[in-house]
Design brief:
By secondary structure, the chain is of the alpha+beta class. It contains 7 helices and 15 strands. A hairpin with a 7-residue loop joins strand 6 (about 120-125) and strand 7. The chain starts with 18 loop residues before the first helix and ends with a strand.
């Protein structure tokens, strides 16, 4: 898109961890800096935004969920430099773009990934009572599928536009009253605990807010036994003091009693990292309600 718009690509000879990379970009008056959220974490650690970048007009990010703290940091940078900050969402099968917006124009939508791109349509499939379900995108930029014969490779552009193509993204989310899309997680990142459908990505976010650290939420790994029995939904949540690290949230669905679960918790702590388990809760619902939390 940069070349199509008449721009040029600056390709340093070194990677981002070398000073020469940023010297090159600054000397050639870079106007747009892009990166996935993880790249921006490194830009910040490397003090990249301590440079002047006098010609900079745009910062863009896509390719994953960016933390709220990083968005707030980039919003401050965008305001200080008087540049735009574009947050985008897409998938390769939709030619990499489904929604976008300038976050600096709508800071009240900081948790959103924007509105649908021109010519596209967004819907939510099998939405729950909160309007959350699978994100479905429709548009001409969605690929037609995989070719299974040589003839299928020769379909013309004109013929391809006859198709109405839906893309079931596999992402979970909702659309607010203003048409802004919010992603809450992946459809396959859900666990059913004591009859409660819990989104593990949402759980991860909520626990992170409570303790000011990054945490990881994962499906039941059955790491300490192979039994099946009472589904207590008990969990062991581990966080690390360094926010750059992540580990897992485990549930022991095989424990028949609370004491048995405590034994499993100790074993889980050994597997994760001795001495690094921060807290444990009886079930996901109580953790989200911030009750019954043990040191």
């Amino acid at each position: 898109s940069t070349i199509y718009a008449g721009g040029r690509l600056l390709i340093p000879e070194t990677d981002i961890f070398h000073k020469e990379c940023w010297d090159y970009l600054e000397e050639n008056r870079v106007t747009a800096i892009s990166g996935v959220p993880y790249a921006y974490e490194w830009y910040r650690k490397l003090h990249v935004f301590g440079r002047t970048f006098e010609a900079l007009r745009l910062m863009t990010t896509a390719g994953g969920a960016m933390s709220r703290s990083m968005k707030e940091y980039l919003l401050q940078e965008a305001e200080r430099r008087n540049v735009d900050l574009a947050v985008m969402y897409g998938q390769t099968e939709a030619t990499a773009r489904i929604s976008s917006f300038f976050l600096n124009d709508h800071p009240d939508k900081i948790d959103s990934v924007g509105t649908v791109i021109p010519g596209g349509k967004l819907t939510i499939s099998l939405a729950d009572e909160n309007g959350c379900g699978e994100i479905v995108y429709e548009g001409k930029n969605v690929f037609l599928g995989y070719a299974h014969s040589l003839n299928q490779l020769f379909i013309t552009e004109q013929e391809s536009y006859k198709y109405t193509v839906l893309r079931y993204t596999g992402d979970a989310g909702y659309i607010d009253g203003d048409g802004y899309l919010y992603i809450t997680g992946r459809m396959n990142r859900y666990a059913k605990i004591c009859g409660q459908r819990v989104g593990l990505d949402e759980l991860q976010t909520e626990i992170g807010k409570m303790f000011g650290q990054k945490v990881g939420a994962g499906n039941d790994r059955n790491i300490w036994n192979e039994r099946t029995g009472c589904s207590m939904g008990t969990t062991c949540v581990a966080t690390l003091s360094d926010p750059a690290w992540q580990c897992e949230v485990y549930s022991d669905r095989g424990a028949a009693t609370y004491d048995e679960w405590k034994v499993g918790l100790q074993k889980a702590a050994t597997v994760l990292n001795p001495g690094r388990v921060c807290f444990a809760g009886v079930n996901f619902k109580q953790i989200l309600n911030k009750n019954h939390i043990e040191s």
